[in-house]
Design goal:
A hairpin with a 5-residue loop joins strand 5 and strand 6. The chain has helices at residues 30-35, 52-61, 79-86, 168-176; strands spanning 5-8, 39-42, 65-71, 90-91, 96-110, 116-122, 125-129, 135-138, 145-151, 160-161. It is of the alpha+beta class and 180 residues long. The structure holds 4-(methylsulfanyl)-2-oxobutanoic acid and nickel (II) ion.
Length: 180
C-alpha cells in the first residue's frame, strides 16, 4: 500500500494553490484518513482505459458512471468561477470519487475536530470522500489536472455549502466518526 501525501494546513489566507503546510510539518497518515471515511488507491493511470484493477474497483463498488474533466484555464469553460466554487467548503449527499489521470490537485477535508487536512493528489491517485464530509478542492501551482469522475448510478453534482448540518447524511456521517 503506497502512502498518500497529506498534512494539516496552516491558517494563512495566501494563495490557495500553495501547499499551506504547518511549520513544523504535521503529516496525516492513510490510516487517519480512513478513520474519517476517506479511501485511497494508487493505480496505473497510463492504462486507465483498459486497467483491470480500476475495473475491479468500479465493479465492486458500483461505480457505473464515469466522465473525465480537465481543469485548466484554457480547457474548462468558466474556469475562474468553477475554481472559486470548488474551493467553497461544501458537502454532497453522495460519495465524491476522483481519479487523477494527469497533473495534480488538492482535496482539503475536515477532520473530527474541524481542522483542515490537505490531501495532495498526483497521477494515479484515486480517492473517495464520504457523503456528508465537509471538503473543498483546488489546483496547485501547476494549474492543471485531468481527472476521472466516478459515481454510483446517475451522477448528482449538487454541492451544499457549509452550513449544511441539517441533512440526514451529514448527521449520519458525524455519527460514524464517534465509533473509533
Ligand atoms: C467537488 O465537488 O469538490 C469537485 O467536483 C471538485 C472538482 S473535480 C476534480
Ligand atoms: Ni465536492
Amino acid at each position: 500500500m503506497s502512502e498518500v501525501a497529506a498534512w494539516y494546513m496552516d491558517d494563512s489566507s495566501e494563495d490557495q494553490r500553495r501547499p499551506h503546510r504547518l511549520d513544523p510539518d504535521e503529516p496525516v497518515s492513510l490510516e487517519h484518513l480512513e478513520k474519517i471515511g476517506v479511501f485511497y488507491w494508487k493505480l496505473n493511470a497510463d492504462i486507465y482505459e483498459s486497467d483491470p484493477e480500476l475495473q475491479k474497483i468500479r465493479e465492486e463498488r458500483g461505480y457505473s458512471y464515469m466522465d473525465i474533466i480537465t481543469i485548466h484555464p484554457d480547457k474548462l469553460p468558466n474556469y475562474e468561477d468553477k475554481l472559486k466554487m470548488f474551493y467553497e467548503e461544501h458537502l454532497h449527499l453522495d460519495d465524491e470519487i476522483r481519479y487523477i489521470l494527469e497533473g495534480r490537485a488538492y482535496f482539503d477535508v475536515r477532520d473530527k475536530n474541524d481542522r483542515w487536512i490537505r490531501i495532495a493528489l498526483t497521477k494515479g491517485d484515486l480517492i473517495t470522500l464520504p457523503a456528508g464530509i465537509y471538503h473543498r478542492f483546488t489546483l496547485d501551482e501547476t494549474n492543471y489536472t485531468k481527472a476521472m469522475r466516478l459515481f454510483v448510478g446517475e451522477p448528482v453534482w449538487k454541492a451544499y455549502n457549509r452550513p449544511a448540518d441539517d441533512f440526514e447524511i451529514r448527521q449520519k456521517y458525524v455519527q460514524s466518526l464517534k465509533c473509533c
